[in-house]
Fold this sequence. Notes:
Layout: E1 10-11, E2 14-15, H1 20-24, E3 52-56, E4 59-67, E5 72-83, E6 89-97, E7 109-114, E8 125-131, E9 134-146, E10 149-154, H2 158-170, E11 173-178, E12 181-187, H3 191-202
Antiparallel strand pairs: 1-2, 3-4, 4-5, 5-6, 6-7, 7-10, 8-9, 8-11, 9-10, 11-12
Amino acid sequence: MRIVRLADLAAAGVLVALIALPFSGIALAQTVPAQPAPTQAAPAASAQAEPKLETFGRWSTLVDAVDTGQDIRKTCAASTAFIGAGGESGTLTLIISNGDALPPNAYPSLTIAVDNKDLPTGKSVAATFGDDKGHVAAKLHSDAAINGRLSWTVDNQAKTSLALLRVMRRAAALDVTFGDAPVGSISMDGFSKAYRSLGASCGFPTADVAP
């Protein structure tokens, strides 16, 4: 799957520009005949837009559009980097496709990747997300390591996901805990604009999260 690369490619609060390479589907080099036929124009290259990258505060978004021949399938992601409670590097990433169920029926999946092997793993990890004004409880499952970095994905139930996204909109910094283990405090600077950008790109309403 192409989208699993996102969470590991964020650095210093922005997605690395080279993220475009695995998403673009465009060959970096092509074999060109030494003597092309002079009477026949070369066929037009397949229309494949480069992934669109934008930055909003500490968040960055990527929109990757692929023409399937029947429609334009878009994968939309927003990501931010953070330093974990023990000084580890980490990323928080939202991902959704316009081929998925969209809000308000389902919300972007949320994945946290962090270089902390002491955090609990498994199929039902209890987690809390919030700030001094309140917290949201959620269950996560740990995924296969990406380039040696462990990752956890929130079980995507619409009610819980909406509550979590609203806390992210409200909080200046999102405090995350897995079980009794602190993961880190993640800046939400730019989150609302990044989320609205995902909605505009992948075609879903955002007023219930970021009016």
